[in-house]
Fold these 3 entries.
Entry 1:
Amino acid sequence: MGRREGHSNIIFAPKYSVFIEETTFSRQLNEPDILVHGITNANVFYFIAVHIKFSIRRKRNIFVLFVLFFAGLFLLLHFRELSVIPREAVSSIDTSARTEGATLTRRGDGDHGQAVESHDPEQLGTKMKLNYVRTGNAISVSPRETTEKKKSACLETQEESRFREVDRGTLVYSAWFDDRKSQRFIRVLMLTSTREPFPSLFCHFASASKQKTFISSVFFYQHNENHHMQFGGFTASCVLPPELDSIPCFVNISTRSTSTQNESNSVALPVSFIDRQHSVEKVQSRRQYGICIPPLHGEISIDRLIEFLELSQILGASHFTFYNLAMSDSVRKVLNYYEDKGLARVLPWNLPSYIGKYDIHYFGQTLSIMDCLFRSMSHLDFVAFNDLDEFIVPLQHDSMSALLLKIHKDEHCGHCFKSVIFDPLREDLQISQLLTQRIFHRTKDATLFWTKCVVNPRRIFEQGIHHISKPIEDYYIVDKVDWSMARVFHYRKCDDPHALMQPKCSAGVEEDKTMQKFGERLLLNFESKATAITDADPEELSVN
């Protein structure tokens, strides 16, 4: 008998002609390869002993496999539990940022918006990674409830929106609870550098009992009209942890991913709401049509301001939102009058001194548009975004409300209108205190790139100055209104060397007396309001 190639051990029982071989491969397979060549009946116990030896070894190997399997299963279940149960001992937490730095860019219809995030929570929903911190006894995590069952107990006296500095060059303005998608978010409107890398920020949420803190990473969406300036507007989003026992009234925006925070690295920002039930907007009832005005600064004629407010109301507007960058006392007192009547809201626009005129596009206008968009959701069916020298004028209906009732369809997120220019340098001979009642010549052709839009605010993710940048859902479409139905009357110089885009002034002008039909009513309203405002504070205000 000899050794077969590939076998390490041969056990030989010559009297009983028994060969039992264990291959070297048996150790890889965890069982012996036994060859038996005939058995007589004398020393069978020897064979049995050897067989038992290998059986024990095989069973031992199987036992080890079972132990390893169940140990692995236990560890898997254990770590899954750790991902949902808040961590113990706040002082010992050191959670690092989970950022992969992926950049997603969407372009189209003039949209250069940029989303920068570690994962896309819009698609992943509740799968986005969250960090949890607990400061009290163990509390089991309840299943997610619907928003309707988690009504906020936030006070109506929330602090007014203003810029708050998280870090130098990173300022937050307002935060909004957004439940328009299946995944709920806190949307933070902010200014920061447009240069990458963007700052690492985290949202800290306290439970109603203050016993737990939930931490969610911020991902950024850059607004599309920052024009490559040093600073620009962003929508920063945080997934709202489903384990929160109530909708948060505040969110702490911090540069730290742990619970250790102080005034130098975090800002407590009140959370506002887009539904009427929880909104802190002081509007008595839901209204159909309002207007957002960009940050006001410089010399503003009181006559022009009152004319804008009164004519816009005749055209259908019932609420106005202003942002105070550098208003004169006279302008502020006019707006105080309309605020007292419940027709206007004035918010501070306190840009820091180190962000100059050439560091940001038009004083952060796009961010004010986004804030006004969110602010309008709770009380307006439609909102427009106008300057003081612009009026969206219906040509076949008595008001914008009547026009919108006619043209708005279920698939529309908003309606955009072409613009024509009424140049004040071409004043007609008629003498009137009102600008719109003495200029009746306009450009013959529409100015396509100076369109203005009226939108359903709840259907918009990002709104631009002259276009709808991004609907909240891709299936919504923008209605480009035929200019025979309505158009923007823009009262400004036609030839303006400072304008980013030049209108078609060379095509000539034509007479347009559409505004005359509002003249009598406008003059009556203008004079009564000017008198009321002057009488309210005759020493401080002179209408001019």
Entry 2:
Amino acid sequence: MENYPETLSYIDRGYHDYSYYEAFYFAAQAGQEALLRFPDTPRGRSWRWWLGNDLMQSSWFADQGKPSNYFVGLVSTSLNSKEMTVDELPEWISANMPDVSATLIQLEPIKGFIGNYVLQVNSLVLWVLEAPTEFQVYPMMDDFYYFFRKIETKDMTGDGIPEVLILLARDANFIGSVSTISAFDLSQVPFRQLTFGSNQRNELRWGGWSGSMVQPGDNHAVIQIQNSYLVGCPIYRMEEYFWNGYWFDLEKSHFKFDSEDATGLTYCDQLYLGSSYLDAKPNEIIPLFEEIQPYWPAEDNYFVPEPDAQDELRFRLGVLYALTGDSKKAIEHLTDIIDNPTIPQSSWIAPAKRFLAKYETADDLYIACITTSLCNADFVIEQSVQEMGITDFSSAIEKLESLGIPIKSSTLLDFDRDASPEYWFTVRHPNRDEIGFWIIAQTSDGLIAHYVDTVTTYVPPIKMFTATNEVIFQIGPGKMFTYQTSPRGEPVIGEYTIPEQISPAVLIRQNFDQLREMFYAGENPLKVKDGLLSLQESPDFVCDLREESYLLDWQYPSYCPDFYYLLGLTYELSGDQGSAVRTYWQVWRDYPNSPFAHMVQFKLEPIP
């Protein structure tokens, strides 16, 4: 069974080798049984390492966190038995698992310990602490779906003790790779994972990461993330995150354009023109658009741009300048389209005229903005509140209405339960169908407006819930959010997902997994057998969960052959040979294509 995954054909390996990695599940089962049956075999050492490799490769066991716990046991047992020293760990692992990469990082000892290490084995990372009398090993992370890229150590929190940052990556079809950055505070036991804010991200897309994750910032270190949204596109989004005492917060961001690869703009197509509004401010986009303007639009044998594509970029620049309050440059760009279009029949002349017909002063921005879908009217609200210099909520609403913004409803509500209420309001832009829900909060720098989501009515039924460490509010069916306040007083709002209810059939599957773990850990086979029979007798017992339409078959696949094979094994090891034969025969008869059927064939003797 150890070689079973390698017997799969190219087609049988599945999309992105999913079925190949799934197949290590069966190899791991065989390995656990072998070690249980023959604990003192001379081959036990190699079998244990094979089992470790199978657990790491198995998508199922990796999802359950089994590899990290297994290697914690291997490493701690070997260190405490003095089989090898901590410095020999990488060589010891590589000697037993030639296909893996192992690295040991030594850190300054923390209080109560004389040694402090981080051990990386592929995407598995362990924390190894040396006390005066023993070694302690803790699993930090084990992400099957990602591959290890790099580890860095840097003091991110300002306490003088370096944190550990880990970059993992995985393939993501045509966009190249998707990576995650994780940070850990190892100043005390247990360690603490440092998180990104609920409206921030630690996931990045990249077309070729280079350089260090951590860079010097303004009096503190920052995590620098480089995003490339499509392979071949020479535009990158650079973001810097700093530790604000509670989470990693976005400090600054900008776009970077590789002009030496300007022909690659064909890969960007309309990407940055169309979606750059989604998560970037106008003052970030303007330098990018000005930098790519001499090269836009890019053209090759496969992509022929619209003849007035240059005018579209100029129009967007004019609107962006208006959004930043630079009315002079906005008018210059839009007027130039009218007076000097790329082609006489440019489709951007009319939009420029409509915008300028409404736009004379900065106070006309909203009315002009809603004349085109290429102007983000929500940003007008955000920018107007930030710049008006008003600290009174009611006055802020009156000012927004004077700018032509159609406020439909508004009132006070204490979202963060700090006895200092915020103000919510709803808006329906004339050029949109949906209704937007906003919150205005008081910060140390004045008022700030935060867009939350769309609602179905001007006065949504708001419900408030208090969780352990956060406030949760609901503005409609399926629209629940957490509300926190950053150290700078800004609202941090994130989506809240209600945990899915686990069906009784899935609970039984989880109980089966627990019984299997108990069995291979040395529990009495009779006790495990009784537990399995109790599960089987339950009216909720369904071992083929793919039949339940509301469950994804890859999340809880059919475990019928697994269940009956383990039941047969408990019968066998408890001395009930007749029941064992009948149960093994059931596996062979009912699930002939399962690897468990092949395993029972070696156990059953044919009747002459």
Entry 3:
Amino acid sequence: VEIGPDGTLTAMARGCVDEEGLAFVPLLRKDRPEGDALVGALGRLHVHGKSPDWSALLPEAPTSPDTDRIDLPTYPFQRERYWLDAPFVSRASDGPDSALYAVDWTEVPLPSEDTESARAEVAVLGRTHPDLAALSASVAQGAPAPGVVVLPWPQDSDGQPTQPATHEPATVHAALAEVLAVVQQWLAEERLSGSTLVVLTSGAVAVPSDEVLCPVAASAWGLLRSAQSENPGRFVLIDTDRPRDLTEAGAEAATETASPVLRAVRAGEPQLALRAGTAHAPRLVRHTPGAPRED
């Protein structure tokens, strides 16, 4: 035991003695508080079987025969693990490609047509009401706020669905400005805060074996997806391969008939693509890269 300001002599003593099983313990270290260093030194002495005179160190401790004493173990620690470790699996084929994901359109079921929830108040902009301002004015005059507001997009000046004759950047930018104005007006209208705006497009997304046919509608989807993330539950995007669904939406709403579009609204998905009467929803899946091109 070295009684001094540091462990210099202890290190030198270890190098001078060949005998094994000896303990060299300094009581103080210059880089540690004195109390911590002393307690640590006593602990090291104890695990080597050299217990100090506890009556001298702790004169106030009870010494009667009835005092309970606990024998401390002479090993430094005991460790038992109870966690189930999952085996590490590594495959030679794992590489950067294994971290790639892509969006896949997965088939999802639609609600049945004969449920009572199909008979909801539905307004179709361009059919039941000329525009959002007219709908808001109707609600302000006492009409019930519809639970679902359908906006076929894009529309012509008469509120009918249309496909732009040109896909020039200026046309896309102008259409996006109109969509943004509708979104801002929709979110600012407190009378319709409990309603859902369903934007109905055609050719906006590419389900497998499809291709994007309408850049204007596709750009609107990009903007509206951002609006969805910031305002959950206020927007639903539906893309259909039957453009006449757009023109029939008003008649369907007027007769409270559950068309595929309205059934899709009740499916609870924020984004859907209707293809041949079947609904598809976007899902994130692991991407499998194709074979590299040889040209």
